[in-house]
Specification:
Immunoglobulin-like, alpha+beta, L-arginine/glycine Amidinotransferase, Chain A, 31% strand, PAD_central_sf, nine-stranded mixed beta sheet, five-stranded mixed beta sheet, protein-arginine deiminase activity
Amino acid sequence: MAQQRRVQLSTQHPTSTACVLGTELSLDVCGSAPKGAVTFQVQGTPGVKLYVVHETQSVKLPSSMGHWPLAAGTEVLLTMDTLSKDVGDEKVRISYFGEASGMPMGRAMLYLTCVEVSLEADTSRSGAVSRTLLDKETWTWGPDGHGAILLVNCDRDDPQAETLDNRDTAVRSYNGTAASHTENPPFPNYFFSPPLSYTSFHPPDLKDMSQMVLRTRGPRTIFTGHRLVLHVDYGDADKVGVFYSGNSMALEEYKHVLGGSKLDYTIKPARHQDESIFYVEGLAFPDVGFSGLVAFHVTLLESPEKGLLEIPIFTDTVVFRVAPWIMTPNTAAPLEVFVCRWVLDGWPHPFQSWIRSHIYDFLFASVEENEDFVSAVRSLAETVKCPLTICPLRENNNDRWIQDEVEFGYVQAPHKTFPVVFDSPRDRDLKDFPIKRILGPDFGYVARKAPEGASSLDSFGNLEVSPPVTAQGKEYPLGRILIGSSFPRFGGRRMAKAVKDFLMAQRVQAPVELFSDWLQVGHVDEFLSFVPAPDRKGFRLLLASPSCCYQLLKQKQEEGFGEAAMFEGLEKEPKVTINEILANKGLQKFNNYVQSCINWNRDILKRALGLAEKDIVDIPQLFHGDVTQGAEAFFPNMVNMLVLGKHLGIPKPFGPLVGGHCCLEQRVRALLEPLGLSCTFIDDFYSYHKYSGEVHCGTNVRRKPFDFKWWHLVP
């Protein structure tokens, strides 16, 4: 339905107004009628289409039918579909008649100027702004949906800048200036380049933003008596920033005109240019109290007599949705692997600091404890031709748990995609790593804090995402986020409300809560993982299984290998035979409890992810501990693995040797290699396992985004 505006007329003096293309004017013929008038006649110039709506008629009728009775509810409607060449070049005359129907008792003249005022964005999601008949004031999901998309401008295009791009009011390029803009920036383009039409003439910071185009056509002198104002609702102003350079392409001419404390901006249309291009950045991700939807308006104000306030005569609106942060699953192709170097614990802290600042490079080889682990991870990364980034001691301060500190994801709009690292509230010695080493051009950053104090469940080993699934008739093409919590018991640890609320608000990967507080550390990656598979759903869910492990050990005992011992080759570890493990009733009772906790999660995962038993692989694993302190892996936890495509880096379990081979490794190979997977067992016993973590905890991976576009989803 066309936007309609009521216009007051007068028989005492002519009235002038602007008619915006595509709108409808309703003329108040009764309000301006002289006393005694009973009928009226409407006439207009060729550029005006006139209709009369009478109370006895329910449809619009052409106005050329002569005199019309002047009755309550009668109105004249007009539209214009051709732009004016001059101000007031189209006219409407209304003549009023009395009972005698002779000469008119009075006339009301209306001078019209047809102009175009239109606020446009990429509502068709094609990657470019174009004219469209789509409803710009609504935003809809799905493959046939419409609505513009904003990226949170959370990268740092100028490496010398002190803050993220969305925390300043400047437009930046890779070296902080526009003059040296190049199509081959020094920082790698992580996913893909935007269309050339969008990138060729814009500094990198602008490429992170979405275009919003104001089109104004018609006689330029009409804007002498009218004002165009771009504005944003008060509640949305702190979620967006808008930049504008007028007619200039120079970087330094781009000014911050809207957002924050700036709620409106007066636009002066250029004399010889129909389009004004604005660049819009998101400042905040969807979260509690912010759905992600932001509306921008352009209003045409008409100036009445001097001393009176301006009158709004037309408003156009366009709605954007801020793109969500999206996680990638283990089954996605790896793009970059991260690992930390670290040294022996127990050194006096000042001594560690002195080594890092003075003779770090000289002594590093002699004090590094995880050299073999780093080499094994490097070898695995080289196998899949994936770059390895090593966080050195001077940057990690002996904090090895890089999986717990950050989670890699991405944001996406039709014109651009870039990775964004999510920094956990954990904030231990790796807390500066994502800011100093990861944040940069086309690599964004987001963080959430835990004001109530962070627990172990706020580390991101407790944050995983499934591959795409369909469950209970609903599709989850971007998978579902998995987080650990304390239910079904009360009073335990839970993920920080700020983190959980953030994940829920993204909407596209509907989180599932699992029970993980039974573990001493409490992370979901201690009992589950996903690996790619060539059949069924395209993946398998791996679950740690004490019962599977006991079955294997009993089988080996029956085969005559009861005296085969765990931890052969580890000089510091007492050897425990299969017979001793099976005879330990306390250990078996505790693992029965652990198995019941995993079974609870198994049932949740089957329902939430739409899995059948054939989609699940049980990995033999034992735990020890007690109900009060929580469970830990009895031997290196093989589920806590590094997944790089079909190549798996699995913690070496040091299981009983049967026929010269570790029976635990043999069982895992028998389970996974038929799926086309390659198993590499990595010794992490003293470098990670003894500190309550494994291979997955000590590594991290940035992965390829989903091919599926999130806006095609129906939440």
